Amino acid sequence: MATGIICLVLLMICIFGIKSYAKRLSHGCCGSGGDTVKKGKPKDRDKSHYAHTYRMEIEGMTCSNCSTRVENALNGQDGCYAQVDLGKRTAWLYTKLPLTEKEAREIVRKAGYRVHSFQCLIEK
Description:
Radius of gyration: 19 Å
Helix content: 25-40%
Mean pLDDT: 87
Structural class: alpha+beta
Number of helices: 3
Number of strands: 4
Distance between the termini: 69 Å
Shape: elongated
Strand content: 15-25%
Low-confidence stretches: none
């Protein structure tokens, strides 16, 4: 009896895993349905206009749509300019005003990802 229940549970786990994998194949890793996320551009892209530089390692980015979502979330903040490198899973954030680690983590979290590490590199 117990063996039958265990086998049934394992079968259900396998079915769920296969369905999840099939969904990722057909809709992309972040459920985009094959649609490309449009990259937003900040008003000011001259790095010399930004007094603060931060480096963040981001967890959960697996495709270009993911990195674009993170970049758009950061660039959507006033006085921020971000560049995201998907290959290194890193975001470089340039800000005109200081930004706390908590604020940066919240912006990335709302986009659906997680900051693994946060470093303040330059404060002018």
